[in-house]
Amino acid sequence: MSLESFFNPASVAVVGASREKGKVGYEIVVNMVRGGFPGEIYPVNPKAAEIEGLKCYPDLRSIGKTPELVVIVVPARFVPKVIEECGTIGTKSVVIITAGFKEVGPEGLDLEREVVRIARTHGIRIIGPNCLGVMSPPNKLNASFGGALPRPGGVGYISQSGALLAAILDLATDIDMGFSALFSIGNKADVDELDVITALGDDVDTKVVAGYLESINDGNAFVHAAEVISMSKPILLMKSGGTAAGSKAASSHTGSLAGGE
């Protein structure tokens, strides 16, 4: 399945949208609106009538349409139910912002596996969990809590660390750097670095692929894909976890088992 719905969805639902400033669910809705997203935005919150002038819905089914992309910000224990609902209404692309999965230990790992099992039953692709979200400046998509949407440009960026991506965005604002897309992949329970660099390799707006990784799931496949992509686009990646201390930090951060260089 292509990642096009993460780059350029026609509609986005935010499950866990909030009216409270400072909450992640509020920041994502605001960033979508302020970014100028041209498609439909559906905040989902059973306790709110509207957020930022947008009608709120108690659940995904009540929207009456199928959002092309769903962003989930509810507590971890409720995520499997939301994924099941996505499958019922036919949504195939989901970003899980929520933390509290394999990065917190065995119980979180079991919960993450359950989410993936449900998603695969319905043919759903997932970015995250435990991530900052996704941005596509050329398409005015800011499905993240990473601040203002940067200007369009030629750099496609992938990061396993939301904090590092936020720092990159701050720096980019200072130097007026543009991006074609930015992906925070977090625990990469489903969509991983190979999927993203392949998508960025195929993306006509991306001229350079850059990023930060804490682990690589399939080293041989990744190197092969990178060799092919680098024939037409430069690839600049930084990988942490090369030392014992770095590996321990990566494991506690996104549940990654970082290997040697």
Q: Please, what is the CATH homologous superfamily of the largest domain?
A: NAD(P)-binding Rossmann-like Domain
Form type: globular
Helix content: 25-40%
Percent of sequence in beta strands = 15-25%
Keywords, separated by commas or semicolons:
261 residues, alpha/beta, Rossmann fold, 2 domains, 13 strands, disordered C terminus
What does this structure look like?
The protein contains eight helices and 13 strands. The protein has 261 residues and is α/β, with parallel strands linked by helices. It has two domains: 124 residues, NAD(P)-binding Rossmann-like Domain (Rossmann fold, 3-Layer(aba) Sandwich); 122 residues, Rossmann fold (3-Layer(aba) Sandwich). The strands form three sheets. A six-stranded mixed β-sheet has the order 9-8-11-10-12-13, sandwiched between helices. The chain has a five-stranded parallel β-sheet with strand order 2-1-5-6-7, sandwiched between helices. The longest helix has 17 residues. The C terminus is likely disordered.
Which SSEs are present, and which pair or pack?
Elements lengths: L3 H4 L3 E5 L8 H11 L5 E5 L5 E2 L2 E2 L13 E4 L6 H11 L3 E4 L9 H17 L2 E3 L5 E4 L4 E4 L7 E8 L2 H14 L3 E6 L8 H10 L5 E6 L5 H11 L5 E5 L4 H11 L7
Parallel strand pairs: 1-2, 1-5, 5-6, 6-7, 10-11, 10-12, 12-13
Antiparallel strand pairs: 3-4, 8-9, 8-11
Helix pairs in contact: 3-4, 6-7
